[in-house]
């Protein structure tokens, strides 16, 4: 009986928690949400009840609050008053690759294109290897933007660097300009691109176009409706924190921290700071890891496991 | 499954029904149709009760929300059961209703109100129900400045069925500030015997463009009161900068180039093309000379 | 002052080339067209199936196309610099070969950018470069520079062939169809050799010669900067501007020597292009070989000694995967010309031409080693299980198009030699040593 009571208490607690989270999302995202009710879009007739910040329950047409695909011109302007930053906690990453897969699914990418890549790095001979998820760093001094001859890639006021695939001529200079090997190229017309039926927007980086360059975009189309990017939403360990650096807050969906506290307490840094690109992604070093690094090799597909055969760790452990 | 186990499960479910603090249940009908499950969540915010019923079908392949299911909400106390309305589940299976409680809610003798979310079944989906009970409570948030320090003051009260206001004592209140995606925790308060408490405002927080910032205080996941929320705003926030430069700066990565680049380019091109034009003029003159002297 | 007799004699010599096409030449032209046809087929494959038919992937995004681009542009600037310099210095021995240098400049300048076009993913948007060009981008600088250079070289070439066209227009013995005569007279701009016309022509030619040298240096430096302004290890080198220019002129001398040899053989120009000319070009080649070796050594010594991590991994790749191309291009490519021209016994026309061939191949490999190994050793290690994504190897499409480019180059050169004599007839018939017998006395003054 005791156990059952405890069970009931914990399940009650879970339901209460759900109420909180639902409430939180609605409270916080409400103001953005109401800003992104696009009355110009045609109504579908289907109504959805949505809560605003003030707690008002409003009925909004379903098609008007779906992930908006803003026009190319609109995508040059950043979301006002924001400057996005990402913090990645290397102590918790176990190479689950849910970030990679959910990003590929959300952006309708083939499996050969990865916007978010997970590397297996080892800084020096004696230092310990670690898993390193790497999105685009959305640098504040972006070399890729500087070298584009036609202005197809641009940096917005909210810090996000986007690519306009209607302008890109596919010269690939930006790919050689990026020192972090972030960008990918559409070498052919991948069938997955046709899976996206909605109009193209640089904010969604979808549907992809053959002969153009694309990369991680920090999912501004999701941010506009109060959602985190695909990678942050789907990480089972909550490794990826995303937020607004001016607001000094980052969250992985369940935990929310002050950005400055996180960086101070966990000694956050930027990768290859010396290159002078001023990235917008900070890393928390793998101190007090939650798992041994070998966990990352569990349940890996052969083709992915083979990637790490030639690393020093792979060679000694004969992967 | 063996028949014994089946009976054990059904018996424990019946036991749940008898319990004074029931939690969400699902009736399993393993013979025909699909039995959806309902999870129920509750938030009491600024005298408004928000009930969220999430209806879903849990299969082996995953959890699937049942869209457009009509959920009826009701509240019951000792004497009455009041119908609160109905809502349709959205894409994620959430049916939400909001109740302003000016009119008061039915309560039992402990001051608790029990809420029900019922799905009456449609097509292949069997009926399902979820319940929840909580006492009605209220949190108010105020602000004060003492010396050079700023404080957030919180008062929590509970109104019983007679209308008497009692303080909520010795519960934990967490103080938040809403940010872009989530709420940021800025403090914790333990309520004293009078149902009040205070915590220092940490400062360095960005508000809206006028500097207004909303502060939210919550009692979370409480056995008696559920989730209770109160909020208020104050102009202690740092005004948010909406910088939209009239003209972007001139850098390598901006739409307009640094001045020295433009100047250098113009000088070099003019220099080169001036020589070209000179050479072409010479050619033109050669032609003219030949025309002048007919051979 | 022109010596009319010499000129008539020379024109008679060259008339057969302009009048008819021998069967050998016809076969040659058909062969070249065949190769170009194969290239067109490869191009269609690339356009329809996408760039996936090439060997380029996300890490090595620039492959053989860009190597060929750099190579052809290098030859072009080399031709420009050589012809410009020789024109200004008015040396005697340059006269038979200067026309070939000018052809080299303009023909490779027309083919080089073609390779860039092959590398561009969306050719249908090419005009965006003009419409939306960003001044901050090195590619925009390159587009502006190449366009300026094309105009400059065309004007320079035109100034150079003007007098020959006028002579051909006046040469009554020339048996060519009437439409060609008309073309010559239109292009000759009524040039009759009056003192004033000559003066103007000389002034224009000198100015353009200077411009062409300056532009060639600037344009090739801009191309070098496309690589050196990025942060890629191996490219981010301060020496790239001058290094590329030197390597370019070096490769150009090689091609020029081969052109000299080919035309000498085919058109039987043994009298005019003599061993002395080969030796003179050979000496130029050696000087440039020394400079090229010096720059290369300086670049790699700096990288190797400092042993920064990424420079180290690059050098490791060069000495393991690319060992033989590296040795060939940077050691053999420098030593062979030095030996062949340095040792008097070896200084024959055949040897010099063979060493020129070695130089060209060595320099092509040098360009390959500049572009591709760097892209194979980026800051973040390439962790991919697919071999074609880890290492680059050119596919048949890329090689077919490379062959087509070379074939087009040869074809244009052949056709150009049929339009205007491949040697500067007017220049050769003037000057103090314009007597037919004197032309060969020039030998003793050199070496």
Notes on the structure:
- Chain A is of the alpha+beta class.
- Chain A is built from 11 helices and 13 strands.
- Chain A folds into 2 domains: 64 residues, no CATH class; 222 residues, Alpha-Beta Plaits (2-Layer Sandwich).
- In chain A, strand 6 and strand 7 form a beta hairpin.
- Chain A is globular.
- Chain B has 295 residues and is of the alpha+beta class.
- In chain B, 17% of the residues lie in helices and 42% in strands.
- Chain B is elongated and about 125 Å long.
- Chain C is mainly α and 447 residues long.
- Chain C has 2 domains: 57 residues; 340 residues, Formate dehydrogenase/DMSO reductase domain (Formate dehydrogenase/DMSO reductase fold, Up-down Bundle).
- Helices cover 73% and strands 0% of the residues of chain C.
- Chain C starts with a helix and ends with a helix.
Could you name the CATH class of the largest domain in chain A?
Answer: Alpha Beta
Summed up, the helix count of chain A is 11
Low-pLDDT runs of 5+ residues of chain A are 22-46, 49-58
Number of strands of chain A: 13
| The number of domains of chain A | 2
User: What does the average pLDDT of chain C come to?
Assistant: 88
SSE order of chain C: HHHHHHHHHHHHHHHHH
Instruction: Measure the end-to-end span of chain C.
Output: 28 Å
List the helices and strands and how they pair.
The complex is a heterotrimer of chains A (319), B (295) and C (447).
Chain A: H1 2-35, E1 47-51, E2 57-61, H2 62-65, H3 72-75, E3 84-89, H4 98-106, E4 117-121, E5 130-134, H5 143-147, E6 153-155, E7 161-163, H6 173-177, E8 184-185, E9 213-214, H7 220-223, H8 230-234, E10 240-244, E11 249-251, E12 256-258, H9 259-266, E13 281-284, H10 302-305, H11 312-316
Parallel strand pairs in A: 3-13
Antiparallel strand pairs in A: 1-2, 3-10, 4-5, 6-7, 8-9, 10-11, 11-12
Chain B: H1 3-18, E1 37-45, E2 48-58, E3 63-65, E4 70-76, E5 81-88, E6 94-100, E7 112-119, E8 128-135, E9 137-146, E10 149-159, E11 165-167, E12 172-178, E13 183-190, E14 196-200, E15 213-222, E16 226-234, H2 259-292
Parallel strand pairs in B: 1-16
Antiparallel strand pairs in B: 1-2, 2-3, 2-6, 4-5, 4-7, 7-8, 9-10, 10-11, 10-14, 12-13, 12-15, 15-16
Chain C: H1 4-19, H2 23-49, H3 64-89, H4 98-119, H5 128-131, H6 138-170, H7 178-187, H8 195-228, H9 240-266, H10 275-306, H11 309-320, H12 323-342, H13 349-376, H14 387-390, H15 396-419, H16 425-428, H17 442-445
Helix pairs in contact in C: 2-15, 3-4, 3-8, 3-9, 3-13, 4-6, 4-15, 6-7, 6-8, 8-9, 9-10, 9-13, 10-12, 10-13, 12-13
């Amino acid at each position: 009986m005791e156990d059952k009571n405890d069970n009931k208490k914990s399940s009650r607690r879970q339901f209460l928690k759900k109420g909180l989270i639902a409430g939180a999302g609605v409270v916080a995202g409400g103001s953005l949400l109401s800003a992104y009710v696009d009355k110009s879009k045609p109504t579908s007739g289907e109504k959805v009840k949505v809560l605003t910040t003030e707690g008002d329950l409003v009925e909004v047409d379903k098609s008007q609050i779906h992930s908006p695909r803003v026009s190319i011109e609109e995508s040059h302007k950043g979301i006002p008053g924001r400057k996005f930053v990402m913090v990645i906690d290397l102590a918790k990453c176990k190479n689950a690759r849910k970030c990679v897969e959910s990003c590929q699914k959300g952006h309708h990418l083939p499996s050969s294109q990865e916007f978010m890549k997970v590397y297996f790095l080892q800084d020096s001979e004696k230092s310990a290897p670690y898993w390193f998820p790497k999105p685009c760093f959305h640098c504040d001094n972006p070399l890729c933007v500087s070298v584009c001859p036609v202005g197809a890639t641009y940096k917005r006021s909210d810090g996000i660097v986007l690519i306009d695939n209607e302008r890109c001529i596919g010269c690939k200079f930006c790919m050689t300009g990026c020192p972090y090997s972030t960008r990918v190229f559409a070498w052919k017309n991948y069938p997955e691109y046709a899976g996206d039926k909605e109009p193209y927007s640089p904010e969604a980086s979808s549907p992809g176009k053959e002969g153009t360059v694309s990369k991680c975009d920090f999912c501004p189309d999701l941010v506009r409706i109060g959602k985190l990017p695909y990678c942050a939403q789907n990480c089972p360990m909550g490794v990826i924190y995303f937020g607004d650096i001016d607001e000094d807050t980052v969250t992985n969906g369940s935990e929310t921290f002050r950005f400055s506290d996180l960086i101070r307490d966990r000694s956050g840094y930027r990768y290859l700071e010396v290159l002078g690109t001023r990235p917008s992604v900070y890393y928390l070093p793998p101190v007090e890891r939650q798992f041994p690094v070998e966990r990352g090799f569990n349940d890996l597909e052969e083709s992915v496991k083979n990637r790490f055969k030639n690393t020093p760790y792979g060679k000694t452990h004969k992967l | 499954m063996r028949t014994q186990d089946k009976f054990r499960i059904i018996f424990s479910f019946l036991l749940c029904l008898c319990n004074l603090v029931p939690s969400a249940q699902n009736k399993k009908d393993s013979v025909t149709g699909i039995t959806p499950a309902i999870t129920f969540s509750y938030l009491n915010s600024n005298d408004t009760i928000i009930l969220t019923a999430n209806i879903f079908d849990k299969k082996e392949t995953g959890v699937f929300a049942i869209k457009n299911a009509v959920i009826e909400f009701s509240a019951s106390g000792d004497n009455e059961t009041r119908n609160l309305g109905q809502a349709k589940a959205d894409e994620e299976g959430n049916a939400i209703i909001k109740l302003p409680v000016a009119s008061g809610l039915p309560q039992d003798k402990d001051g608790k109100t029990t809420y029900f979310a019922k799905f009456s079944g449609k097509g292949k989906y069997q009926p399902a129900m979820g319940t929840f009970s909580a006492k009605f409570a209220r949190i108010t948030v105020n602000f004060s400045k003492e010396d050079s320090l700023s404080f957030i003051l919180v008062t929590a009260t509970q109104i019983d069925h007679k209308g008497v206001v009692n303080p909520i004592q010795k519960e934990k209140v967490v103080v938040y500030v809403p940010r872009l995606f989530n709420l940021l925790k800025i403090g914790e308060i333990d309520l004293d015997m009078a149902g009040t408490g205070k915590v220092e405002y940490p400062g360095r927080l960005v508000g809206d463009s006028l500097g207004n910032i909303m502060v939210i205080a919550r009692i979370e996941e409480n056995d008696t009161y559920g989730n209770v929320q109160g909020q208020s705003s104050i102009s202690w926030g740092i005004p948010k900068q909406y910088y939209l430069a009239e003209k972007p700066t001139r850098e390598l990565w901006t739409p307009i180039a640094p001045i020295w680049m433009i100047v250098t380019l113009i000088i070099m091109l003019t220099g080169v093309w001036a020589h070209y034009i000179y050479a072409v003029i010479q050619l033109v003159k050669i032609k003219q000379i030949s025309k002048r002297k007919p051979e | 002052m022109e010596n009319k007799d010499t000129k008539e004699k020379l024109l008679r010599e060259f008339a057969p080339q302009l009048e008819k096409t021998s069967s050998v030449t016809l076969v040659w032209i058909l062969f070249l067209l065949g190769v170009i046809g194969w290239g067109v087929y490869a191009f269609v494959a690339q356009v329809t199936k996408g760039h996936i038919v090439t060997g380029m992937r996300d890490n090595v995004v620039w492959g053989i196309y860009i190597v060929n681009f750099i190579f052809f542009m290098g030859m072009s600037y080399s031709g420009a610099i050589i012809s410009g310099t020789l024109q200004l210095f008015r040396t005697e021995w340059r006269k038979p070969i200067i026309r070939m240098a000018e052809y080299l400049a303009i023909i490779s300048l027309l083919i080089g950018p073609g390779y860039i076009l092959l590398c561009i993913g969306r050719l249908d948007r090419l005009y965006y470069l003009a419409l939306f060009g960003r001044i901050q981008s090195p590619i925009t600088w390159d587009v502006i520079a190449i366009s300026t250079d094309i105009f400059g070289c065309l004007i320079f070439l035109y100034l150079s062939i003007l007098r020959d066209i006028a002579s051909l227009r006046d040469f009554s013995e020339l048996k060519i169809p009437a439409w060609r005569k008309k073309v010559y007279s239109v292009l000759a701009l009524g040039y009759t050799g009056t003192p004033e016309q000559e003066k103007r022509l000389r002034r224009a030619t000198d100015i353009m010669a200077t411009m062409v040298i300056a532009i060639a240096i600037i344009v090739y430096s801009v191309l070098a900067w496309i690589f050196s302004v990025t942060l890629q290890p191996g490219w981010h080198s301060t020496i790239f501007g001058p290094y590329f220019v030197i390597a370019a002129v070096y490769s150009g001398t090689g091609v020029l020597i081969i052109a000299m040899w080919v035309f000498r053989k085919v058109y039987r120009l043994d009298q005019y292009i003599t061993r002395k000319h080969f030796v003179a070009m050979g000496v130029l080649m050696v000087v440039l070989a020394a400079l090229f070796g010096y720059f290369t050594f300086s670049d790699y010594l700096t990288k190797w000694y400092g042993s920064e991590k990424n420079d180290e991994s690059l050098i490791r790749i060069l000495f393991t995967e690319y060992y033989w191309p590296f040795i060939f291009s940077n050691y053999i490519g420098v030593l062979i010309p030095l030996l062949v021209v340095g040792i008097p016994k070896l200084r024959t026309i055949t040897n010099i031409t063979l060493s020129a061939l070695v130089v060209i191949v060595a320099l092509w490999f040098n360009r390959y080693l500049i572009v591709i190994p760097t892209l194979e050793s980026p800051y973040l290690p390439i962790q991919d299980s697919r071999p074609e994504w880890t290492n680059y190897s050119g596919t048949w499409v890329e090689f077919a198009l490379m062959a087509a480019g070379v074939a087009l180059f040869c074809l244009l050169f052949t056709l150009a030699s049929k339009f205007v004599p491949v040697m500067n007839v007017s220049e050769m018939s003037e000057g103090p040593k314009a007597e037919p017998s004197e032309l060969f006395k020039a030998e003793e003054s050199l070496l």
